[in-house]
């Protein structure tokens, strides 16, 4: 598969900020937020799996060189970009990354176009927790966190932090209390995810579906892809995007 030529390129603007987007497929909408260093061929391949499963996939390009592979050079370049960008938090705890506002706007636009119970939102690695932030003020019906790694887990407090402000966390907890579920995937021995899955279990209770993959891998659906993780995501998306919203079921 050639990328990005095989995807329809567009853009989305919110509050004066514009990022490129790539889109493909038909069916319920799913926003796939790439990991560091960007939309690599492996990220695009995962997006294509969702397209093949019957979803409209939109991949925003937030940093990095689209279509470039995961190499030390591309990783370093992406890290330089996010470190100076005001859209992302890196080390601060108890705050929501400003880019969440842009992502919520993208989700609202996609849902307005496609309808249905809501859209899916899947974040990876540095962007792994963004799907939680999108639940606050967007029609996100299927949030998926793949190896969430922000803030960088330097010390116990940061390793447990969810990259959410206290007010946003309360909104997420309220939605979960009303029936929303959250899916999370990580390798059981991945140091980059820290202890935040324990925080999610404590704060969200049974609403948090925790998938632990054995080993020391990191990228659960791309570079270190495990079929059991992909299957869990496909099942979760189908259960939440192909049925009536919670409370409206017959």
UniProtKB/TrEMBL annotation:
Instruction: Kindly state which keywords UniProt assigns to this record, in alphabetical order.
Output: Hydrolase
Pfam families hit by this protein = DLH
SUPFAM superfamilies reported in the protein's UniProt record: alpha/beta-Hydrolases
TM segment ranges: none
Q: Which GO terms describe its molecular function?
A: acyltransferase activity, transferring groups other than amino-acyl groups; hydrolase activity
Highest taxon, organism lineage: Bacteria
Q: Where is this region: Disordered?
A: 1-23
Keyword match Hydrolase: yes
Q: Which residues form the Dienelactone hydrolase domain?
A: 27-144
Name listed for the protein in its UniProt record: Dienelactone hydrolase
Q: Which organism is it from?
A: Nocardioides seonyuensis
């Amino acid at each position: 598969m050639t990328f990005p030529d095989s995807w329809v390129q567009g853009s989305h603007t919110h509050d004066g900020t514009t990022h490129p987007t790539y889109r493909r497929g038909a069916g319920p909408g799913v926003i796939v937020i790439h990991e560091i260093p960007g939309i690599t061929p492996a990220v695009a391949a995962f997006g294509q799996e969702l397209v093949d499963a019957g979803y409209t996939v939109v991949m925003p390009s937030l940093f990095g060189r689209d279509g470039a592979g995961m190499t030390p050079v591309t990783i370093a370049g992406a890290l330089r970009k996010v470190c100076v960008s005001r859209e992302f938090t890196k080390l601060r705890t108890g705050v929501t990354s400003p880019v969440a506002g842009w992502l919520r706007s993208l989700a609202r636009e996609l849902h307005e176009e496609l309808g249905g119970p809501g859209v899916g939102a899947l974040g990876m690695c540095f962007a792994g927790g963004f799907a939680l932030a999108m639940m606050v003020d967007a029609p996100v019906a299927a949030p998926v966190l793949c190896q969430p790694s922000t803030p960088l887990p330097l010390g116990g407090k940061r390793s447990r932090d969810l990259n959410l402000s206290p007010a946003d966390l309360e909104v997420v907890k309220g939605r979960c209390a009303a029936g929303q579920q959250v899916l999370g995937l990580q390798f059981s021995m991945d140091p980059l995810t820290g202890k935040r899955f324990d925080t999610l279990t404590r704060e969200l209770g049974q609403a948090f579906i925790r998938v632990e993959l054995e080993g020391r891998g990191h990228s659960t659906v791309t570079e270190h892809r495990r079929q059991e993780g992909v299957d869990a995501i496909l099942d979760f998306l189908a259960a939440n995007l192909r049925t009536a919203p919670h409370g409206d079921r017959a």
